[in-house]
Automatic annotation (TrEMBL):
Phylogenetic placement of the source organism: Bacteria, Pseudomonadati, Pseudomonadota, Betaproteobacteria, Neisseriales
UniProt domain HD-GYP: residue ranges: 140-336
CDD domains attached to this UniProt entry: HDc
Alphabetical list of SUPFAM superfamilies matching this protein: HD-domain/PDEase-like
Family annotation (NCBIfam families): HDIG
GO function terms (MF aspect): phosphoric diester hydrolase activity
InterPro entries: DUF3391 (IPR021812), HD/PDEase_dom (IPR003607), HD_GYP_dom (IPR037522), HDIG_dom (IPR006675)
Full protein name: Phosphodiesterase
Length: 404
């Protein structure tokens, strides 16, 4: 049985099933192992990990600890309660009108960022005049309809992860700032910082940056230096804002002080730095890597919400969930009626009842005529159904973006 326990209850002989932390926040080569020494427990605590999941079939038990299923049900209940109280950010364009434009913006941004990062690798300075127009285009698209561009940001390939992740973080920061009602100027600077937040990785040796496996403890320490390198590069960039530097310099800080490079805690971290930490982890969790299968967005949001007790600002985590929805655009879901569909739009009134394009019946195992169902409406008015769970596109051999 899998259970969640506080690290202070860890004992030699327990089997760690999950360190319950994003991979860039701990130095362990593996995520599952039998605890054999007190030093291992101390190392877990020193890594800023507060809770872990143990497998009682492979090691000692803690009878009073909640099971993984109990924890999941509680978290999902809380997420739905939070989401049901809030509306989606306003839109100026429908998905059908914005998706094509968003594809062009996303493709161009990836090309530009790739070129900038390659230039930095060669020792050249960042040309801000190349970045700023792309951030403006990202912002315009997101203000028209944030779901279109953000759904595209989930498309990544393992060989080009660094620059694709940079574009995604830039877009997510723009969307997050807009949802919080920030000024156009603040949104712009945050977007620039998000797009360039990992630029210091160009100073990390390729053998470490592109290693097809988990980093060793020594390699992990080298990788962590990318944050300071990002700060140095951006501070030397003519015309860069202090806001952009803060986003890049603080995206690995954690609310409980367990982050790096400065170990800042709570309000010592700027609001935008706290937002960047959430966005960076969300995009990393949902991305496929050589050694890490990306989570479904809904699962990633649940983990970030779980970790918000310690690592993130809880209020900002809830605000981020309202920004993209519990079931973000492009999520494959199964409805209570047994139909499969793709979320195509967040609902203005209720984030747990989005608009879904259904196309397949699980009960009859057949395709059905595509139909848009507004889950916020009652039976007879285009609704009368609800999401029971999200599904794996790989399992059903479906590309959700085909239906946007």
């Amino acid at each position: 049985m899998i259970k969640r326990i506080d690290v202070n209850d860890l004992k030699i002989g327990m089997y760690i099933h999950d360190l319950n932390s994003d991979w860039m926040s701990h130095p362990f080569l593996v995520n599952r192992f039998l605890v054999r020494k007190e030093a291992e427990i101390l190392k877990i605590i020193e890594s800023g990990i507060h809770e872990v999941y143990i497998d009682t079939r492979k090691g000692l038990d803690l009878p009073s600890a909640p099971t993984e299923g109990e924890v999941r049900r509680q978290l999902e209940s809380e997420l739905i309660e939070i989401a049901s109280r809030h509306a989606a950010p306003p839109r100026r364009a429908e998905m059908a009108d914005e998706f094509g434009r968003a594809q062009l913006v996303h493709s161009e941004a990836n090309l530009i960022v790739r070129g900038i990062l390659q230039d930095v690798r060669l020792g050249k300075q960042v040309q801000l005049e190349q970045v700023e127009p792309q951030v403006e285009k990202l912002t315009d698209s997101i203000l028209r309809n944030n779901g279109a561009l953000l759904s595209l940001c989930r498309i990544k390939d393992k060989d080009n992860y660094t620059f694709q992740h940079s574009v995604s973080v830039g877009a997510l920061m723009v969307s997050f700032c807009n949802a919080l009602g920030m000024s156009r100027e603040a949104i712009h600077h945050a977007g620039v910082g998000g797009m360039l937040h990992d630029i210091g990785k160009m100073k990390v040796p390729d053998t470490i940056l592109n290693k097809p496996g988990k980093l060793t403890e020594q390699e992990f320490q080298v990788m962590k230096c990318h944050v300071v390198e990002s700060q140095k590069i951006l501070q030397a960039t003519r015309g860069i804002s202090e806001t952009a530097v803060l986003v890049a310099g603080q995206h690995h800080e954690r609310h409980d002080g367990s982050g790096y490079p400065a170990g800042l805690k709570g309000d010592q971290i700027s609001q935008l730095g706290q937002m960047a930490a959430i966005v960076d982890v969300y995009d990393a969790l949902t991305s496929d890597r050589c050694y890490h299968k990306g989570m479904a967005p809904t699962d990633a949001l649940r983990k970030i919400y779980e970790w918000s007790k310690f690592h993130f600002n809880p209020e900002l985590v809830q605000a981020f969930m309202r920004t993209i929805g519990i079931y973000p655009v492009g999520t494959l879901v199964q409805l209570e009626s047994g139909r499969l569909g793709v979320v195509i739009e967040q609902n203005d009134n209720n984030l747990v009842s989005p608009k879904v394009k259904v196309f397949f019946s699980v009960k009859s195992n057949t395709h059905i005529p595509p139909e848009v169902v507004d889950l916020s409406r009652k039976m007879g008015f285009g609704g009368g159904d609800k999401i029971v769970k999200h599904e794996s596109p790989e399992k059903w051999k479906i590309d959700p973006l085909r239906f946007l």
